[in-house]
Amino acid sequence: MPATIPADSVGIVTPTTLHFDDPLQLQSGKQLDQYDLVVETYGTLNAKANNAILICHALSGHHHAAGYHSKADRKPGWWDSCIGPGKPIDTNRFYVVSLNNLGGCHGSTGPTSINPATGKPYGPDFPIITVPDWVNSQARLADRLGIKCWAAIVGGSLGGMQALQWAIDYPERVENAVVIASTPKLTAQNIAFNEVARKAITSDPDFCEGRYYDFEKIPKRGLMLARMVGHITYLSDASMGEKFGRELRDKAPKFNFDVEFEVESYLHYQGERFSESFDANTYLLMTRALDYFDPAREYNDQLEVAFKKATCQFLVVSFSTDWRFSPERSELLVDSLIKAGKRVSYAEIEAPHGHDAFLIPTPRYVEVFNAYMDRIADQLDIDPGNGSLQAGLGAEGGTA
């Protein structure tokens, strides 16, 4: 953490674990009899409860989206650049809720959690989770917090898919869906990348068919490879070239197969870090949720029909160098929303950062995001919060 907390930071925050006893029926046909969700909140719910924003995380994200957990934290939450006083999601006027999704490995019930039926971690027995399953669990979270309708549901990448699903499944509970660097379904190439990542994990000798917890092992090599493959796809060729070029670590080739180039060193570092902080079974689940997402499937592949029920307004944002979820995918989504008669704003942002651009506050991106969030506040006549948040989370919840 910096020596002093920046004025535009939400400061020190404390996550809260919420327990749910009502069984959750899953799309796979299985059910979770009970589960936990770990949540962080920033800002304050106002008296009308009309200023709530749900932040949906991407593949490796979690509940810690902004601020710091302690003064020893080296980095803030994963979307701190966009959440806080004066930022696009301004916590002076919005009440922000961010959670770790089911199946995650940062406190919400997932493969590392104890299965009540066996007394051991779920591991590979944890059921397949889909985007609609997440949305159903988030709707229960909203009920718990006293939120009948979200001012906006905001997400990048996999998070954007959740915002779209909300608009379809709970139209009466969403005023705005903000869909950033996302897609209405994966291309075959994207599914192929996910399969390579999963194969890297499941072929690691330490994977032990997903029961590595029982043997006190971690399939680090597989996780590392999966992350390395993923990381390449999150960046653009231009940004990798600008960051690393073809620089050699030791200035001259050694003519062997050790790590020679700076870009190799970077990928190894990213993979190593990830393998120490993320769970392999969770990675499998999250990539499968990405693969399965396709809201048009049950409407004869007619996306515009899938969106007929939606009543919210949409903001769709894409980035010029995002080849993983390219602008063409967002344009397909926008075309379908227009055919369905929905109100949609669209911006393609010139940015060199590839898919990861949605995490980077480039000026044009921030301008577009700010303008849309201002419009939400004006249209909903949002007042600043007045402290009713604690009715939802209890005395220990939310911003410390």
TrEMBL record:
Active site: S157 (nucleophile), D322, H355
EC number(s) stated in the UniProt entry for this protein: 2.3.1.46
Site (Important for acyl-CoA specificity): R324
GO cellular component terms, semicolon-separated: cytoplasm
Residues where substrate binds: R227, D356
Primary enzyme class: transferase
Domain AB hydrolase-1: 52-355
Keyword Transferase carried by entry: yes
Entry's localization field: Cytoplasm
InterPro entries: AB_hydrolase_1, AB_hydrolase_fold, HAT_MetX-like
Main location: cytoplasm
A Pfam family: Abhydrolase_1
Record GO terms (molecular function): homoserine O-acetyltransferase activity; homoserine O-succinyltransferase activity
Highest taxon of source: Bacteria
Alphabetical UniProt keywords: Acyltransferase, Amino-acid biosynthesis, Cytoplasm, Methionine biosynthesis, Transferase
Residue stretches in coiled coil: none
Key word rRNA-binding present: no
Catalytically driven reaction(s): L-homoserine + succinyl-CoA = O-succinyl-L-homoserine + CoA
Pathway: Amino-acid biosynthesis; L-methionine biosynthesis via de novo pathway; O-succinyl-L-homoserine from L-homoserine: step 1/1
UniProt family annotation: Belongs to the AB hydrolase superfamily. MetX family.
Subunit structure: Homodimer.
Function: Transfers a succinyl group from succinyl-CoA to L-homoserine, forming succinyl-L-homoserine.
Protein's UniProt name: Homoserine O-succinyltransferase
Gene: metXS
